[in-house]
Structure formats: C-alpha cells, structure tokens
Amino acid sequence: MKHVRMFLALALVFVACSAFTMKKGGDKPVYIFGVAASFNDTVVYYTPVQLLDSVVLDHQNFLPQRELYSYQLKNYLEYTVGKPNYTCMIYFSEKKGKLEREALKIMDKYRKENVEVRLLDNSFVFKKPEE
C-alpha cells in the first residue's frame, strides 16, 4: 500500500509539473503566399500574402500538409486559369512583414530576368486541407 501511495504521489507531481510546461498552441497566425513558374512560359504567377485560418505550425515550425497548399495553387492554375505544367512553391511564416519582404525579393529576382510577373486576383484563397 505504501508503494501505491508513493506511485500516486509521483504521478500527481508529474502531472502538475507538466501542466505548467506545456506550450500554448495556436497563439500566432500563419501567413502564406504562393509562386508558380514554368519552363515553357515567360509568365510567373504569384498570390498575395494571405492569412491561413486555424492553422498552427508543428513543433519544428513547419506548415502541416504544406504540399497540399502547393497542389491547391497548381489545380487553380490548371483548371481555372488554363495554365498546365506550372511548378508551384509556397512560402509561409508567422510574421506577415517578413513574408511580404520575402515575396518582394522573389518577385524582384524574376523581374530582373525579364519575366512577366502577374498577381493572381483575390478569387484564389488557400484553404486548410481536410484531415
């Protein structure tokens, strides 16, 4: 009986201590933008920086299911804009200003290469993939 009490006391201390060290999730918003380029076309498409609703970065600060966001952009270009064979990349951050600077830097690189850069209108919105 003495061992059972000791075990329960240790378990209680462990639970109490771990409750204070747990990281509160979902505090910071996640922002995203996408870029689509093709070797067969001189036009590069990009999206404005968008807020992802109810998305939290994982413990390694990666966007969960990030490949599905690039497929969303690829499918939009293929089926809505009529531009197949584009390679789509996404960029994400918890800081909107940092992501906007990154977007400007990437678009400036494309403009220096004499590539036409087109902003996709607000009809395209990244959505959280269903689990």
The termini sit apart by 46 Å
Summing up helix and strand content along with how strands pair, one would put the structural category as alpha+beta
Discrete helix count: 3
Number of strands: 5
Shape: elongated
Helix percentage: 40-55%
Q: What's the rounded overall pLDDT mean?
A: 85
| Gyration radius from CA atoms, angstroms | 22 Å
> Strand share of the residues?
15-25%
Note the main sheet: 5 strands, mixed
List the helices and strands in order.
HEEEHEHE
**Low-pLDDT residue spans:** 20-24
Task: Please give a structural write-up.
This protein is of the alpha+beta class and 131 residues long. Helices cover 40% and strands 20% of the residues. It has three helices and five strands; from the N terminus they run H-E-E-E-H-E-H-E. It has helices spanning 2-21, 66-81, 96-112; strands at 30-37, 43-46, 50-52, 87-93, 116-119. Strands 1, 2, 3, 4 and 5 form a five-stranded mixed beta sheet that branches. It is elongated, with a radius of gyration of 22 Å. Residues 20-24 have low confidence and may be disordered.
